[in-house]
Design a protein that fits this description.
The chain is an all-alpha fold. Helices cover about 75% and strands about 0% of the residues. The termini are far apart.
Length: about 140
């Protein structure tokens, strides 16, 4: 059934390639981690990027792309945290991989916050990132403290 919906959406894309909402829906389908059959973060990323390319102010796609990256970084950080304490080399490698992805998410989350400044989820994630990377000026600007 999911494949049929995807095929129908892809047909709509062919007929209306400027409809950013269709790309967003496809991104959401492929970005759903609860669907082990369809989940593909790279495909989801591509669809979100296409939606944003068509409409650079499309909050939902911008936020979801940032969240997708954060979820991917969290998976890597879990691997790092599950390592034995003695394996600092692997821990540092995984943590740096997670950091690279978080940095990739940051401009999308900041744009989402700009478009919808009172979204607590976005603010919470941004606070966490700013603390992680010691971005004190941005943290202060965000929190007013």
């Amino acid at each position: 059934q999911g494949e049929k919906v995807i095929d129908d959406l892809k047909d709509l894309v062919v007929r209306d390639p400027s409809n950013y909402s269709i790309f967003f829906v496809l991104g959401t389908i492929y970005g759903d981690e609860t669907d082990s059959v369809l989940y593909n973060s790279k495909v989801a990323e591509d669809y979100y990027l296409k939606a944003i390319e068509i409409n650079p102010e499309y909050y939902d796609a911008i936020y979801n792309l940032g969240a997708l990256y954060i979820n991917e970084s969290n998976k890597i950080q879990v691997k790092a945290n599950d390592l034995p304490l003695s394996d600092t080399k692997s821990y540092e490698k995984y943590t740096e991989q997670a950091n690279v992805i978080i940095r990739k998410a940051l401009p999308y989350l900041e744009k989402a916050n700009e478009l919808m400044p009172n979204n607590e989820e976005t603010i919470t994630v941004l606070k966490t990132i700013y603390v992680r990377f010691k971005m004190d000026d941005k943290l202060k600007a965000l929190t007013g403290k």
